[in-house]
Amino acid sequence: MFQKASQDVIKLQKGVNKFAVAQNDNGKKSGMWVKVAKLLQNVATIFAAKHTDDLGKQTKDSHDEGKIWGMIKAGKMDEVKAHLKKNRDDLTCRGAVGDIPLHVCFLYNGSGPKATQICMDMARFMMEMNPDILIEPYKGQLYTGENILHIAIVNRNHELAVELAKLNQDLLSGQAKGTFFQFGSRCYFGEYPLAFAAATNQLKLFDALFALAPGLLNEQDSNGNTILHVLVIRNLKKAYTHVKETWKKHFLSDSDPKPEPALWNIKNSEGLTPFLLAAKLGSKEMFEFLLEEGKEVQWSYGPVTCQLYPLDQLEHEADDTNCSTVRDTDSSALELIVEKSHFDLLTHPRIKDLLDKKWTQIQPILSKRLVFVCFYLTVLSRFLIQRRLYIQQIQNMGKCIPDSFIWYEYMALYVLVVSGACWKGMREFKEMWSHGINKYFSCTGSAFLENFLSISFFLSIIGFLCFSFFESSLELDALCLGLASLFAFSYLFIFLLAFEITGPMVIMVYKMLFNDVLRFFMVYCVFILGFSHAFFVLDHSKSSGTIMKSIGCLFDATFGDFDINGHLEMEAPFRSISAMLLVCYVVLVSIQLLNLLIAMMGNTYTQINDDSKKHWELERARIIFAFELEMTPTERQQSLKYHVEIKDKRYFQVEVVDDTWELDNETLEIEARHCQEEVVDNSSELNS
């Protein structure tokens, strides 16, 4: 029960951590949500207290030389042999964390040559007494599935690891999937021994183990990750290339040149290939490496090289089949980069080139949308004016004259406003159906703003349409229309975000509102509630009013509108106390708290202003995706033509210029000699 509860709380903590990162586009977690995540971590720690006790018991047993665990720790070979001969069952007894004595021998196989030899002698003695314990794994929750081969690989004992694998190849199928080896931990190496060897960058050992069990190269761990996924996580480019070439040599043949799926195209449980995983993690070096690995050189002419980059994983293809199947779990590399706000990847030259080409073709669509929105807002504004004249005519005459110009204009504008809202609502619901509700609402930044404003405006107009048929619901009618007007005019923020001049300013307002002002408001509410109740209790006069009136007076006092004489005229004995409380409130809230808010806003402005270009690039990418998701496959194919098709595959073509090409050979030799002299000088300084 405790184990499951601990796992559930850990999952919830990870979700809060993810949300905390999403609240800040620069990748730093928002402080308030980090504290919530830490609180959940503390709850998980309470549930997992049993496992902490197990680790403590393991340490205590290892120092008790009266037990087998302490004898092994102390390196007492003779006592271990004597004990096991008398107590043979202790060979398979389980320790506090699910280990057996053989595991402990390999675990302590790292305290120097002498200790290593003693531990290995103990291990060989145990395996001779009972060969079956060779493949016994850990059975505790922390280290479930780990066997002695895993330990030998992590300790980088090449010869021992190969010897064990040859003794019993079943060891190669062991999966270390305890909580200690879970995805995201420092010791996540891919569960299988073959993955352990590659993830620890022991390529010769990997080759030796692969020769014993080649089929395990295609295995996926409990997270669905292959060895290539693990190498992306560990950021090992050389090992990635080595494993990929090994797979090609063994599994590619002349009769079947393209087996499906290739190791680098296998998706994990999150639907991510190694390339997509690099995009999600924001690993700049690994992403650049994989992106450049897949390119094809079309031609070269002097300093210019034409390169083709495949788009199969970089973005989704716009066709009817894809549109109907792209759901919440399917993401392209570009979407992941934008969703996770990876600025380093977003500013990569090839990604920037791709976004620039997309933006060039999106701009005409954006301009048409702006003209349409301005026209619609003009109609909406005129409709609001005519609605008031229409209501006034009814109130003055008791009815509206059907033949009047006001009635005709009002009805025409009414139809235009409702029709436009219904058209937009249908497009939004079609987008939800095509791409999934979760994907629709999980977007961030300008994409979320566009979706939120669009669906809110549509629902507000529908509410207005429903309540307008009932004369008794005039107030609700006006409320819905007022909200619709607010959402409609706020839609202009989408277009302001699209411009580099105004985009960063809108981002600053958003950050200040949801980070600085929100935190200020939470603290401010505590002060105003406490002081308002205190003033309400102290003032016994009949004119004191309600608590809400007291809150209103304090709200005015926040901005300097307070009357200290009114507090001095209160009934004794509370006259002086009330005045002192007012002074304390003014100092704490009007002076300290408001200035603190200004300082916080200034800090937010500085942070965003320093990276304004990056923030605008991110919002521009979000706008591009928002517009693409609204388009039908046919519209995308006709409007967005930034790729070339070769043998039914889409490629992004870019011409790369080599700035160093114009340097002649003599200059290059001089630079190389200069660099070599600098290296020699640095070496001399280090030696001295």
Give the helix/strand layout.
Elements: H1 2-22, H2 31-47, H3 49-62, H4 68-74, H5 77-86, H6 101-107, H7 113-129, H8 148-154, H9 158-167, H10 193-199, H11 203-212, H12 227-234, H13 237-251, H14 274-281, H15 284-293, E1 296-301, E2 304-310, H16 320-325, H17 333-339, H18 343-346, H19 349-397, H20 405-435, H21 437-442, H22 445-467, H23 474-490, H24 492-497, H25 503-538, H26 547-558, H27 564-568, H28 575-610, H29 612-630, H30 633-639, E3 644-646, E4 649-657, H31 665-687
Antiparallel strand pairs: 1-2, 2-4, 3-4
- What's the β-strand tally? 4
| Estimated radius of gyration | 34 Å
Q: What percent of residues are in strands?
A: under 5%
Can you tell me the residue ranges where pLDDT is under 50 for at least 5 consecutive residues?
1-7, 16-30, 110-115, 320-328
Provide the structure class: mainly alpha
Per the CATH scheme, the topology name of the domain at 2-277 is Serine Threonine Protein Phosphatase 5, Tetratricopeptide repeat
The H-level CATH homologous superfamily of the domain at 2-277, spelled out, is Ankyrin repeat-containing domain
CATH class of the domain at 2-277: Mainly Alpha
Number of H- or I-type helical stretches = 31
Shape: extended
- Overall residue-averaged pLDDT value: 78
Please summarize the sheet with the most strands.
4 strands, antiparallel
Fraction of helical residues: 55-70%
Which strand order does the major sheet show? 1-2-4-3
